[in-house]
Amino acid sequence: MRTMSGTVRSASGASIIEFGAALAFLVPLVIGLLLVAAEVTQAYLINAVLSQGAESAARELAIQYANDTSVANSQALQESLVYDNIRNSGVINASEQFDPATFNLDTDPKTVSVTVHYRSGQYGLSQFPYVDPLNIGSHFPLQATATYRVD
């Protein structure tokens, strides 16, 4: 024969075990979601800086083209006149992150397009994502392209 206090203790013990099991599932899930949110935020910020760098490079190349049309065919000129001057610590550290500019001079309006890449772990850049046990970071290249009108 059970007493009332024995039943209460049983129910209380079962509740504690269920609560512990729920925490064992929920705590790692919440931590994982927070880490994913941090990585997505970092990717967004890197992409915003890359976009700004690509826009600056395209604008500067358009200005340089107005001064000297040979910049359209010379990657060395593009690097020395424009890419070497565009830096953002931790995101754009080297001119090699820029692809050679694409000048579309047969279209109306004439344009120049520039692409810049975030090369994780290269050129003094930090590894992104920092923790990547599933190697999914390689499937999400971070790059930005900007097009500017050439007059």
Summarize the structure.
By secondary structure, the chain is of the alpha+beta class. It has helices at 4-67, 75-81; strands at 102-104, 111-118, 142-149. It has one domain (4-149).
Termini gap? 96 Å
Which residues sit in consecutive blocks of at least 5 with pLDDT less than 50?
none
Radius of gyration: 27 Å
What characterizes the major β-sheet?
Answer: 3 strands, antiparallel
Beta-strand percentage range: 5-15%
Query: What global shape is seen?
Result: rod-shaped
**Backbone structural class:** alpha+beta
In total, how many domains does the architecture comprise?
Answer: 1
Helix/strand order? HHEEE
Count of helix runs: 2
Number of strands: 3
**Share of residues in helices:** 40-55%
Lateral arrangement of strands in the main beta sheet: 1-2-3
pLDDT average, as an integer? 88
Could you explain the architecture of this structure?
The protein is α+β, with helices and mostly antiparallel strands and 151 residues long. It has one domain. It contains 2 helices and 3 strands; from the N terminus they run H-H-E-E-E. It has helices spanning 4-67, 75-81, and strands spanning 102-104, 111-118, 142-149. It has a 3-stranded antiparallel sheet, with helices on one face.
